[in-house]
Amino acid sequence: MVNFSKKLTTDQIPGWEEYYFNYNLLRRRVKEYTEQTKEGNHDRRRVLKDFSKLLDDEIEKIVLFMIEQQGLIAARLEDLGKNKARLQDLPLLQEIAEIRQAYREVGLDLVKLLKFVDLNANAVRKILKKFDERLGYKFTDYYVKSRSNHPYSQLQQVFKHVGIGAVVGALSRNLGDLEEREGSYLNIYDQNPLAIPKDPIIDLIKTTADKLTNSTNFLRFLGQHALIAEEDTSTSQVQHIEQEKYHFISLVLNLVNTFLYMVNTYIIVPTADDYATSLGAAATVCGVIIGSMAVAQVFSSVYFSAWSNKSYFRPLLFSSVVLLLGNVLYALAYDLNSLTLLLVGRLLCGLGSARAVNRRYISDCVPPRIRMQASAAFVSASALGMACGPALAGLLQTKTKFYIFTINQDTLPGWVMAVGWLAYLVWLWISFKEPALDPDVEVYREGSSTSSRFVEEEEVEKGLAEQLLLPNDEDEHGELGSPAASTLRPASSVASAYRLLTPSVKVQLLIYFMLKYAMEILLSESSVVTSYYFGWNTSTIAVFLAILGLTVLPVNAVVGTYISNMFEDRQILLASEFVLLAGILLSFRLTGTTYTVAQYVCSALLTFVSAEVLEGVNLSLLSQVMSSRLSRGTYNGGLLSTEAGTLARVVADATITLAGFLGQGALLNATLLPSLLICVASIAATMSTYNSLFY
């Protein structure tokens, strides 16, 4: 891997060297601060003040040069516009060609400016990351919030390249006007944009701009959706991962595990109510059947997260065996006429949830250069499994006997998944390669001997640091001044992880709980509601649920590629919550009215799509506001979000079962009311912490 300081020097544009971010100066200053910390001769207030001033000075230097260059480009465009105006009366082809070439040269200078901005933006990110890692402060959170949200923000100029769009528009318009169109000089605004011939320089400008703001947005959005951080990694770590840990087939096996588990989760949804009634229970017991898997997952997430500190192969092996057994018991419950056996089978399936291992493998064993793609593949595998589960259930419409075993729409999901997990188990045994674990890294990941070296400080120094770090940015329990404790020691228990949660993080976890609750209510009661109101059969329900699942990737593509470029994450978050609220309100059946298919389908799409958008943005913000101490160890941020979502599913399925005692006619409104209340509460909580969320 090329050292970034060398890359910064190599890629600098000749003549502009003095205007680049002085990365080496700030890196040396961070090294000095680190050495002073080790020697115990370190004034935290002075460090924060000096480093903030250095950053401000460097960014101001960059921004002023950008403004100067934009002014020069604007002046050149103005002069060219005057020259072009003189050609309106006598358009000479040679002079037109000369002016077009002059416009292209302006475009090339704009490309140089965009590359200048891109390189400096990377330098700012790198030095902030290095400062936090070396000194143990949460300085980046404060700096980004205070500078980017300020009305006179200079940081915005660096990261959003304000004003570039106007220059691109001017170049496009003038080059379009100069195109030879058989003597016609139509304005670009009078034509279809797709019909306007584009000069190659315009494509080059847009490609360069996309690299700065849009080229990786969809992958990054999906990676955040999976809550797998794309972290900077040192050269030695990257070499260690590339040479000893990464194994493509093992990554594929983790993704297949994710896909199969999601299929396993949703394949029973269209038939769970029918299975319950065939065993003599009420149709609304489907909530217990579906939710029992989530109940077990609450516990399995913890032990799988801890187990992945030592191994990846053994947890995946155990997961496959347990899921195989659970699906067999689920299928056998029909012939044995045992609801208990059916629930035990689903509990075993939940105990086999290895999603924590799948996330951990991508985070720890996939090289940074492809980690975001792997994270996106994780989300895609989950979404595809979510859609394939109900679709597969719709195809399993048969009824026959195989020796003493009944094969029908209720038992086939269990038998099919058992065969699937058996095939996966064989493939896993043959092909999975256990990554080599560095003993030092393993100790660090477990947080056992490492944590014993650190002692929590009881008081926080007063002064400038309290002004620099907002209340939500102060390190937990006064540990801001303890570099090693705040950045290296992971949470060692649920209680210690909870103490690391700031108000902003708690609100994001509440939102995650809310959206998972709303989605589970919608999906789990769909078979009961649609059969009661509309008389839908299993195949129709399966198609409906599959269509809902297939919206996940297109919606994420639109949000990650376009909407996230137009609005802040916190704006998208709040808007999605209001749309979800509208979907829930539209779902209610009003007294004295007929509940129509159109109302149900529209409200379901509105609820599901807004929840999907909300999930991606929510996890994106969660990854930004969560303490760095929750990025590793057993009790990490991924585990906390998984537990919040799983708990929401458990509560939702329990709500469906309890509401069933009121009768199927009252089920819909009885289950929607808690969703409404939780959604309103999450909106209020979001608005109360809105200013502490940054993008």
Automatic annotation (TrEMBL):
Transmembrane segments annotated in the record for this chain: 248-269, 281-304, 316-333, 339-358, 370-392, 412-430, 540-560, 572-591, 666-690
Output the Pfam families linked to this UniProt entry.
MFS_1
Query: The organism sits in which domain of life?
Result: Eukaryota
Q: Report the locations given in the UniProt record.
A: Membrane
Q: Which InterPro entries match?
A: MFS, MFS_Domain-Containing_Protein, MFS_trans_sf, SPX_dom, SPXM_SPX_plant
Sorted alphabetically, which keywords does the UniProt record give?
Answer: Membrane, Transmembrane, Transmembrane helix
GO-annotated molecular function: transmembrane transporter activity
Presence of keyword Transmembrane helix:
yes
The way it spans or sits in the membrane comes to: Multi-pass membrane protein
UniProt keyword annotation of Transmembrane helix present: yes
Domain annotation SPX: ranges: 2-145
Gene Ontology CC annotation, any one = membrane
Q: So what family is this one in?
A: Belongs to the major facilitator superfamily.
Protein name (database record): SPX domain-containing protein
Source organism of the structure: Eragrostis curvula (weeping love grass)
